[in-house]
Amino acid sequence: IKWPTIQYLMEHIFGEQIEYGYDYMQLLYLRPTQILPILCLVSQERQTGKTSFLDLLREIYASNAIIVGNSEITSEFNALVSGKLLVMVDETALEDNTKVTERLKMLSTAKKMPVQRKGMDHFEIENFTKYILCSNNETRFIYTEEDETRFWVRKVAPIPKEISKPNVMEAFHEEIPGFLSFLLSRTMHVKEAQSRMWFDHKDIETEAERRLKEKQQRNPVKAIRSAIKQLFIDFPKTEYLIS
Question: In sequence order, what are the residues at sequence separation of 6 or more whose Cβ sits closer than 8 angstroms to the Cβ of residue 182?
Fold first, then answer.
């Protein structure tokens, strides 16, 4: 069974990192307990395929995947999302909520997840949840620090109108068996884990992630970087030693 719609969407979402994208999907399907990076799909533009990608994953994993909003991910009661393989947040806006950001980062690598239900005692379950965040705000959807390695941030371009499909869900439904067969037989690009999140972060780092971190630098850091950059512009040299 051929799967041209899914193949196009995968190549559109992951671009030059497509082999890592297929590895990500293969690990989700064949090694669901493997820790994976928090995948972030961002773009200021509309009609990029981000939501279609979430719909594809929900079509594959059914009740083991859920698409939620910011209110569900920020709530202290998490029974709705606990125990899922995939928790996907559409229109993420968590930059000002560092507490939730830290919780997401913690849960992306934790072996246990505390489950909190209203009016009931708390308890823990095995944690294997992967998180995917989508946002139209490329640099202010979540707070991250310069040395953070748990995010995989990809900027997604718009899908040309002439190749967009109005009946994309029907195409997904027909093509998923072929796609899963491909994942079963494919040889992994990254054959062995390079980190606890499988990938070496330098291999999946993107310009979109660098921009995200740069925009969130504190004012003194920005001032120092600007001054050093100006120094090289005004007095071109290959190296400066500054105390």
Answer: 3
Instruction: Say how many Å lie between the first and final Cα of the chain, rounded.
Output: 63
Token pair for residue 122? 């708390």
Neighbours of 168 (CB within 10 A): 17
Task: Spell out a b/e string for 46-84, using b for 16 or more CB atoms within 10 Å of the CB, else e.
Answer: eebbbbbbbbbbbebbeeebbbbebeebeeeebeebbeb
Taking only the tens of pLDDT, the chain with its 243 residues reads 799 999 999 999 999 999 999 999 999 999 999 999 999 999 988 889 999 999 999 999 999 999 998 888 877 778 888 889 999 998 777 766 678 788 888 889 989 988 888 777 788 889 899 999 999 888 878 888 888 899 999 999 998 765 566 788 899 999 999 999 999 999 999 999 999 999 999 999 999 999 888 877 666 766 787 788 888 888 888 888 888
Q: What angle do CA 158, 171, 72 make, to 5 degrees?
A: 65
Q: How far is CA 236 from CA 221, 222, 228, 230, 239, in A?
A: 22, 21, 11, 10, 9
| Cα(120)–Cα(127) distance, integer angstroms | 20
How many Å apart are CA 187 and CA 97, to the nearest integer? 40
